[in-house]
Write a structure and sequence with these properties.
There is one protein chain. Strands 1, 2, 3, 4, 5, 6, 7, 10 and 11 form a nine-stranded mixed sheet that branches. The radius of gyration is 26 Å and the shape is elongated. The longest helix is centred in the C-terminal third of the chain and has 26 residues, at about 225-250. It is an alpha/beta fold and about 250 residues long. Strand 4, helix 4 and strand 5 (about 110-115) form a beta-alpha-beta unit. About 40% of the residues are buried. It has helices at about 15-20, 25-30, 65-70, 95-105, 120-125, 180-200, 205-210, 210-220, 225-250, and strands spanning about 45, 50-60, 80-85, 90-95, 110-115, 130-135, 145, 150-155, 155-160, 165, 170-175. It starts with 13 loop residues before the first helix and ends with a helix.
Length: about 250
């Protein structure tokens, strides 16, 4: 497998990246029309941490972390390393030594579509990480790959310089060209949610605030007092027993 290391790709504006860090993954995905999520399989190795940064992407072969070494050189302040492989891999491609080198360069975290190890050490040193698996399985450094090229994870394309936002809910990618627009939409969504939160604290129901009573009617959902519901269910059960008895009698030989 040959490859390429792309140097100096354009990146999203850091002010937009930092603004997106003020919102949760769920809010940002909703602001983009419920898109951009890398999938529920990529989970944090820590809790209570949210980071945003610009993607430095890595495409490697399974069980081989050579290109992560190559990618460290391309990483800098405000980046997040994003690693995937040419076919599924859960080996521990990334650990504490990589994190030490990246943290020294100002990298904000790592997202692995593979395995990760040294998770306790990563938590102790405060280096945020998200991965598809945790595995102590080691790797080799023997096959070429690529750095700073578009990669696909769970149907989402991550390009170099795109915004990666990650928290306890997972990971979302914001295309570089949509960063400013997404900040504005996330701000509007958060303001709307604040108003809804205040309404709920005041005792209002989602059924009324969202106009969902009309939806229930349209779908044929009805309200019944308990006694009426129990009476109807007993009558339905009785009719069902009568129908089964009639069917058995009708099937008896004459």
């Amino acid at each position: 497998m040959s490859g390429v290391i792309v140097t100096g790709p354009p990146k999203a504006e850091l002010k937009d990246v930092d603004a997106l860090a003020g919102f949760g993954v769920a809010t940002v995905s909703e602001a983009m029309g419920r898109t951009g999520l890398l999938g529920p399989g990529i989970r944090p190795v820590q809790q209570g941490v949210r980071v945003a940064g610009t993607a430095v992407t890595v495409l490697s072969r399974p069980g081989d972390n050579l290109m992560i070494h190559a990618a460290v050189e391309q990483c800098g302040e405000g980046d997040i390393l994003v690693v995937t492989t040419t076919s599924p891999c859960t080996d521990g491609l990334f650990g504490e030594l990589f994190a030490t080198a990246l943290k020294q360069r100002g990298v904000r975290g790592v997202v692995m579509n593979t395995g990760i190890r040294d998770t306790q050490e990563l938590r102790d040193m405060g280096f945020p990480a998200w991965s598809r698996a945790v595995s102590a399985q080691g790797t080799v450094k023997a096959t070429g790959g690529s750095v700073n090229v578009p990669v696909a994870i769970d149907g989402q394309v991550v390009g170099p310089g795109d915004v990666i936002l990650a928290d306890d809910d997972g990971v979302v990618v914001v295309p570089r060209g949509r960063a400013r627009e997404t900040v504005e939409k996330a701000e509007a969504r958060e303001a709307k949610e604040a108003a809804t939160r205040a309404a709920f604290l005041d005792g209002r129901l989602g059924l009324d605030r969202y106009g969902l009573r009309e939806t229930l009617v349209r779908l044929g959902v009805v309200y019944k007092p308990y006694d009426e519901y129990v009476h109807d269910e007993r009558r339905r059960d009785g009719n069902a027993r009568d129908d089964r008895g009639s069917a058995r009698r009708d099937g008896e030989p004459s």
